[in-house]
Amino acid sequence: MTRRLILFAMLPLLSVISGCKKYLDVNHNVDAPAYVEGYLYLAGITQQYQGIYWDARAIGPLSQMMGTTNATFTPFASHYYPSGNDAGGEVWRMTYWNQGMNLENMINQSIAAEDWSLAGIGYAIKAFSWDAMTKIHGELPMKQAFLPGVLTHDYDYQKEIYAQVRAWAYKAIELLEKEDNHNYGTKISGNDYIYSGDKSKWIKFAYAVIVRNLASLTNKTNFKDEYAQELLKAAAKSFQGPEDDATLKIAGGSQSAPFSEYNNFWGTARNVLSYDYFQHEYAVQVFTGTVPEYNESTGEKVRVPNNVYRPFKLASEQIVTDTMVNLPGHFDPRVAVKLGTTSNPKYLDLGKADNVKAYKYYGGAFTSKIGPIGTAPSFYGRNIASTWSGTEHDGMGHWLYRDDAPYILTTYAEIQFCLAETYWKLGNRNEAFNAFKKAVAADIQTTARYVYPGKEGAATGGDKITKDLFNTLAAEYVNGPFVNNLSTFTLSHIMMQKWVALYPWGATEAWVDMRKYQYDIAYTGEYPSKGNGWTQALLEQKWDTNPAKVYKGFYLAPAQVDSRKGSYDVRNEGAPCYRLRPRYNSEYMWNLQSLEALQPIAGTADNYHTSIPWFAYPGEMPAAK
């Protein structure tokens, strides 16, 4: 009886509600609207680029920029992968999900409304994200990516994806150059955390995407005939100086931020880097000019007696700098900013050159803080986990490892290095050298922009050099024997200086370069393979004395030199990692059939991560065996 009375009592109310147009329309929930104006997507879409820094935890160790003791990411340092885990899948998630349909909606709605500027920005973002994703993962579901009602998605091969990335970038340029008389007010500028609505810079950015896309193909046999000229033309229309660098601004706020995500992923407030990640010994060797000499008959380093800090004989040729720091131009001040050091914990005399040049740097191994000459510090410069309170702490961090630091997406320096490499491949040495000099000088300028000196006498974080001293030493370095007055100019100078410029924000692109040059593996024929460059127990790399070796001092974990001579996981079959596996929770849970169809190595194979991507094959991809 009570139930019937309630039902009857509700009938008049339902009649009233049904007469109120759209009063209770579940398809138009004001708390979760099905449609929003295009410009409202922009801020959220751009902020997702922090995902690139997330995946640097996997790619930093792969490119020997970082070492790690984080159990989830140590497999990547060993060129394997954690099973049943999404680690290393954040750019995948960023592109398909976090940006995903939001970006598609923004583009499509903007085109429908003839908001050409916003649509062009959308296409530029799409091209950049997909370019990054395919370089990390290789083959991707592209044509079926956002088809409604599709539960499994076929994969497209990288050659097609590369062409589509450039097509999207050119579409961005076309739309951005189109006359757009709409009065956006602050709709774009207030939501664009990269260029604040500056169309001219977005056009340059789109051309930068094209340059980066093509630069990964420089070691292909058809590069000079099919891709080089397109790269040169795009570079000419891309960034014109460091002021055009693409960076994503963030709110910051450190411990007082309403959400920790307002801070940079590498700052102290997020507590991600802490002491689980540290500079690799290779980074220290390159930045300090201490690449060792190896006895090629034994693979051992040549020891120097009675020298604790530099116990090994150094290679006669150092590419980036050397240890004669008291000579003008021989000290690269980027080391004092990009690397961490426990020297000068009280931040004294930050403006004195002799003091800064005397800092000592230590790097760790792949999965251990203990390196060949000492213990690697955290990126904040201490041998303990990060803290931000007490009498001694890391404060807001320093340089790009700082709470309010922007995320760097790409720079003028990077584009100039791509240009230098292209000219080198074309045999235009003078043009290559000019682009090289511009590139190094530009990275110096970009690096200096984020120098925030610590407080003199206080162990409370910050950079251990003043900006004025950095600029003074940088001017000497650029005009010294390693840059403007370089006596011998090689491909190694271009690529290793590019590696330094990318450190560590551009680990993805540094890894691209290392893979396209096949990790400097010694092999015959077009590309390395089992029995031709590696076996289960041995991976041979070119010696540093080999003129064809690009990355001097670089040796993988199972190489023929001292402290290596190990082996990869047996499922690698002796091969290094050439791609990250697709995101586990989307592909290995729901899309297995499509993964199984991939060639020449199936995506479900234990060694799929060793499958060489198309960009790294000199020719076309081989057929499955």
Query: The biggest beta sheet, please?
Result: 2 strands, antiparallel
Count the DSSP helices. Answer: 20
Poorly predicted ranges (pLDDT <50, ≥5 residues)?
Answer: 1-26
For the largest beta sheet, what order do the strands appear in spatially?
Answer: 1-3
Strand content: under 5%
Note the gap between the termini: 76 Å
Shape type: globular
Radius of gyration: 26 Å
What's a concise summary of this model?
The chain has 625 residues and is mainly alpha-helical. Helices cover 38% and strands 3% of the residues. The strands form 4 sheets. It has a two-stranded antiparallel ribbon. It has a two-stranded antiparallel ribbon with strand order 2-6.
Model description:
- With about 625 residues, this protein is mostly helical.
- Helix content is about 40%, strand content about 5%.
- It has 20 helices and eight strands.
- The strands form four sheets. A two-stranded antiparallel ribbon has the order 1-3. A two-stranded antiparallel ribbon has the order 2-6. The protein has a two-stranded antiparallel ribbon with strand order 4-5.
- A hairpin with a 2-residue loop joins strand 4 and strand 5.
- Helix 14 packs antiparallel against helix 17.
- The radius of gyration is 26 Å and the shape is globular.
- The N terminus is likely disordered.
Task: Give the topology, please.
Blueprint: H1 2-18, H2 39-47, H3 50-62, E1 66-68, H4 74-77, H5 90-112, H6 116-137, H7 158-176, H8 199-215, H9 223-226, H10 228-237, E2 246-248, E3 277-279, H11 281-288, H12 335-338, H13 353-357, E4 397-398, E5 401-402, E6 407-410, H14 412-425, H15 429-449, H16 467-478, H17 491-502, H18 507-516, E7 529-530, E8 533-534, H19 584-590, H20 592-596
Parallel strand pairs: 7-8
Antiparallel strand pairs: 1-3, 2-6, 4-5
Helix pairs in contact: 2-5, 3-5, 5-6, 6-7, 6-8, 7-8, 8-10, 8-14, 10-14, 14-15, 14-17, 15-16, 15-17, 17-18
